[in-house]
Amino acid sequence: MEIKTGYIYHIKDEFFDKINDKGLMINHENGKARPTYFTIKDKDILWFIPLSSRVSKYKPIIEQKINKYGLCKSIMISEIASKPSVILIQNAFPTLEKYIDHPHMKNGVPVRVADNLKKEILANFNSLLAMKKKGINLFFPDIDKIKEIMLSEL
Fold first, then answer.
1. b/e for 126-144, b at 16 or more Cβ within 10 A?
2. Which of 4, 27, 99, 119 is the most buried (most CB within 10 A)?
3. Predicted local distance difference test score (pLDDT) of residue 16
4. Is 93 part of any domain?
5. How many domains does the chain have?
6. Is 5 helix (H, G, I), strand (E, B) or coil?
7. Other beta carbons within 10 Å of 37
8. Residue 22 carries which DSSP code?
9. Residue 65, pLDDT score
10. What is the pTM of this model?
């Protein structure tokens, strides 16, 4: 399977069993699959950004951040696959292709994010990475530890 930046994928439970990080999002309830993930391909490492349908939960959080800091780059709301989606950049984490279960499909076609939204997500993600390098960590998972584990598996 060819993995591409800007497409939506599902991840195997095996990854979450291996990586015990309380900052990672947990399974959905009632036997549903884990969230879908916007994927960024970065050489051998993939970055997964969880997507959520819980817009009403995250709107006030975004508003609080905007009121406090003047902007919010860690959470976005936009339409993906014709549905409002929350893009949780703050919950991003690195993984490997072997942990991808399958692409998210709609009408038999892998779901792809619109180019303008993809650019905005990438810009915000890179902004959070740059802030982390300066000592301001807005990521919930321990991305350095997870990346180290993933690189050791290569």
1. eebeeeeeeeeebbbbbbe
2. 99
3. 87
4. yes
5. 1
6. coil
7. 25
8. T
9. 94
10. 0.92
pLDDT per 10-residue tile (average), the chain, 154 residues: 90 88 69 78 93 94 95 96 94 95 92 96 97 96 96 92
How many residues appear in the chain? 154
CATH of the domain at 38: 3.10.129.130
Distance CA(29)–CA(22), nearest Å, equals 17
Domain of residue 57: give its range: 8-153
pLDDT of res. 87 = 97
Using alpha carbons, select from 92, 56, 47 the residue that is nearest to residue 73: 92
Establish if 1 belongs to a structural domain: no
Q: For the residues of 27-68, what is the DSSP string, one character each?
A: PPSTTPPPPPEEEEEETTEEEEEEEES-HHHHHHHHHHHHHH
Q: Which of 86, 105, 96 is nearest to 150 (CA)?
A: 96
In a domain, 73, yes or no: yes
